[in-house]
Fold each of these.
Amino acid sequence: MTLTELQIASANAILFLAFGCFLVVAARNGISLLQLLLATWVFATRTKPGRSSIELWRRYGDLALPVSVIAPAFNEELSIVESVKSLLSLEYPHHEVIVVNDGSKDDTLGALIRGFDMEPHERMQIAALQKTQIRGTYRSRRYPNLFVVDKENGRKADAANAGIGFARTPLVCVIDADSIIETDGLLRAAEPFMHDDGRLVAVGGTIRIANGCEIEGGALRRIGVDTKLVPRFQIVEYLRAFLSSRVANAHTDTLLLISGAFGMFRRDVLIEIGGYRHDTVGEDLELVVRIHRYMREQKREYAIKFVPDIVCWTEAPANLAGLKGQRSRWQQGALETLQRHRRMIFNPRYGRIGMIAMPQLILEDVIGPPAEVIGYLVIPAAIALGILDPMMALAFLGVTVLFGTGLSLGSLALEEVQLRRTPTARDLYRIGEAALLENFGFRQMNLIYRLRGIRSFLRSDTKWEAVPRIGFNQPS
């Protein structure tokens, strides 16, 4: 091959990469736009649920199925007492709280014993789904519905499985220990089960960022927006994910993820499938995908729902160091799930999950991040070499920055109309400002973190990086 032919081939390869990256980013944003439009339609046409917890209690107090709230906890000394107080104060006729101390290295167990007057209490497991040793069990002298399990460290999935094994109720709600559920959250989550014909197996809710909020006595006293940019960027991300993507996917029966921060499940189904897997860092995604697979292979009718009016507040990483580990883990977990359930991809046996949801996950988590990073590098290089029209750079900027900002503002508008959890105009401005600024640096850093997760997946690195916590009501 001559030098000229080599130059032509190189130029063609660069052009191919540039246009390929542009198409991938445009496809991802196109799907996001369709989801936003569908979510808007769903919100506009639905029958709004009861506004007050009193109304929900009067309507369902005698119908509510007993629920066990399972809260795995690892190194949560700073916020565990506040979180458990929140769980105990939930407005629900029959619920118990099972806190699983997953071999914490700090004084999480001590904080629980002191804060709730715990004493040793023997209780038999109905199903031993965990892989590690149970070191002790405790019950509160002051709160008969509070039960604590102390076990060796085995990560969140193992801790959740231990709690599921100790539960006695038909429904279990698995949450993060650093989360605050709104007082009517359990009633709203259990409501679909009260009208169910036996098909419903899981319900998810909206996750919101607690950073900047005022938490007192385990309850959300005042909603606020953190002054720091990293938590505010995550507010924007969560609005897009929960009020747009989850609503749309649930409506089309393609929901693959119920957040590990809050989810309600039929306990018998979780036991049937063996609980959470221990060999993945994305146990929440893998669990829901495995439920889909199991139910379809068993040819059983089932449903998985998302209720946006269930709101759970969680502490988000306050800085980039904490965000890095979290996003890398999410990316790695998605790839592990795709690999483990790859036979479902484009397999009509699994219906919409195999033909739509799994391919969409590939676009989002396998093709999307590398393509966008390559686009940021290749398109400017191609323009500098004179082989690509500068308008291409503007088009790429449009589908990444401007289009992304529009989607974020659309999700913020949905939140303001439907949930109204942003109390002041100043807070709305702060979130809107973050929706624009996230495209200049934060979005690109997130891509780097996701590439780091891809690298960990390729290396089969199962190391778990705990997200640093500052605790509720602590300065960021």
Note: The domain at 50-344 is CATH 3.90.550.10 (Spore Coat Polysaccharide Biosynthesis Protein SpsA; Chain A).
Amino acid sequence: MADTIKIASWNINSVRFRIDIVTRFLREAMPDILCLQETKVMDGDFPESVFHALGYRHIALHGQRMHHGVAIISKHPLAADERFDWQANREARHIGVRLANGLRLENVYVPAGGDVPDRDLNPKFGQKLDFLERMTRWSESCTGPTLLVGDFNIAPLESDVWSHKQLLDVVSHTPIEVTALADLQAAGDWIDLGRQFVPPPARLYTWWSYRAKDWAASDRGRRLDHMWASKDVASAATAHHVFEEARSWLKPSDHIPIMTEFAL
């Protein structure tokens, strides 16, 4: 019989500031592994003891003071710790590990890209596109069972945003970003697990702006957080969960956790 493993991903927007809801999620959802983005903390200041107390004894970190940062917290041993500089400026936006069963787990935080979708007027947008291009080149040579998760900062489908027409010129849903993400997906023949379990045109969001006074009532969401799997891993996926309720927890992130269960 295959073992069941639950892997979650969450842009937490400061792990220390939101440690209470992180621990709540771990207790309630009980993932085996949690991939965090935007941890905003140096490795030496990461609250490892909190996770150790909950049974997560294996932690891989790639931190940065006040900005960015990614981490993988696990109940299972982690090996082959790697950090790719897809941003080409040493920002802490990726960490990759391998599990004992051979699964490769890649945790990434793609740049948001600023406000203007023009690389000439907005260098941050150009950095985002270049980041995706470097990921695409890596993806072309990626082999073996792999799970790619994180905050991709792109909502590719019309049903991934609250208004396709109104967001066509808004960074995260512009045609050039959607095309870049499609190229990345094609390069690795990745399976989008969110949409494997919730096929379009069903609504599926993972992010709501802090600007909304009542995020649930306005429901102006976007699906910025993703889990992509190689075909062999996708075939082992048995369930996918989207924790919208976490957006209403005390001191919430603007992102919510997502989690997939696998029979590996």
Note: The first helix runs from residue 19 to 29.
Amino acid sequence: MARSTNILLACVAMLAAMLLAVVMTPHKLMARTHDVFDIEKHLPTQFGDWKPVEGLNVIAPAPPDSLEREVYNQEASRGFVDPDGNVVMLMVAYGESQSDRLQLHHPEVCYTAQGFRVSATSSGRLAYSSSAPQLKVTRLIATREDRIEPITYWMRIGYDNSNSNWARQALKLGYGLRGWIPDGALFRVSTIGVPPGESFKIQDKFIHDLLNSVDPDTRAFMVGDPGKALL
């Protein structure tokens, strides 16, 4: 009798755990709570001193038959040049579901998969507005043959700006406990033909000028909403 009771209790516990897992699993997409943000429409083609440049070889996510095409609902790339002739490439990728299976891929992974050697990454913060938190960014250098490409990138997960895998996982958990699957966007800025130290200064100015040229909704899409952020 005691053995039967123990088995019954174990079955009940297992069933309760399964039901709890279902209840706790987030099902609501944050992306469904607002109008679809059209990157091509909102991303400027020129701003400030930055003019458009066509025909640049921008490294993009993997081919259409790969998982990345499921990850990213929208992608856009732009080339810009300043009055001094410095060329900057901007790549934006958006995914409406940052679930365990579908999540943004770091540029380190994307570039390595395309034959680049990637330097160790470093984290930094960029001040673009006196009224907003500093932007959390990651820097690295990708090299393939004679192409040396310094890169600055950041991610927006839900309402948060993130620049680390740890933070991204923490945000997924935090939003998940609230029943939400956050959307996410990756922003990558890079230059070619300029020494890394100078490149990162050019990229900082570009990001500063870009974020201060767009409307509030576009800026929130790019960096999140500090008033609603979890971290």
Note: DSSP finds seven helices and eleven strands in the chain.
